[in-house]
Here is the input.
Amino acid sequence: MLVHKISEVKEKIKEWNGLKIGLVPTMGALHEGHLSLIKKAKETCDKVVVSIFVNPIQFGPSEDYDKYPRTLENDMELCNKERVDLVFAPSPSEMYGENIRLSNDNLTYVCPPFFYVNKLCGKSRVGHFDGVCTVVLKLFNIVQPDCAFFGQKDAQQVIIIKKMVKDLNVPVQIIQCPIVREESGLALSSRNKYLSENGKKEALVLSQILNNIKACYKKGITDIEALKETAYSYLTDKHELEYLEILDKNTLEENQNANENSIALIACRVENVRLIDNIYLGEI
Ligand code: PAF
Here is the structure.
């Protein structure tokens, strides 16, 4: 069932009183990565809500908000196949009101701590995580789920959302699900649609770099700088590296040496498409 209004969601969840509700927040253009979240939600909850909303306030002025893929018909087919109980696809005005200027001198924002946002994706995407936390908290308040499901591919996003939930006593359990990859190793992303066939091949360097870092760590190299240096032999003029970091997987703190709690994270542009990926160095 597809609804566009907040009031329709509220009516539905009233009917589900006492049942365990799972929410899978998405921006649509659903792929196997999203479907893995939906499947996990179906396994563990009585009712599953998928939200589909390309959230304007998490895109910077020069980012791809206008051209972000919008494929509601196909998304609905996939959700129906997975027996999703409710799809909530609001308009921007339904979420933020008519004629609202979407800036924080006009709208209440959730601002995650500087320590968590002033690194990795947050460094180049200023304000992005304010937009993410704001819409996620709004969705939590509208749907009132018991659990919400997020992919590990957006590792910084999940850590920040967990922090928000803890700091603001939000009664929602955050469930993180593993990255889904193509057979080639490429992490699934709605933005892969922007890549040519050749671009997709070039994009394999992200997972290759991460796998190699993990292999080197397993061989006993723990010095972070030495691990990061192993990446350079993979990069050509087809790749514009934005960051490669090895941090604590729970706190995003820096250490001098990698350990079983480390995560390696990369962002790199290929054909001007910004791609991200990550890998845990220790056992999960
Ligand atoms: O990961 C995403 O698709 C988005 O950031 C989210 C969590 C749906 C918020 O708009």
The two ends are 36 Å apart (CA to CA). Residues 60 and 125 are 7 Å apart (CA to CA). The longest helix spans residues 128-143.
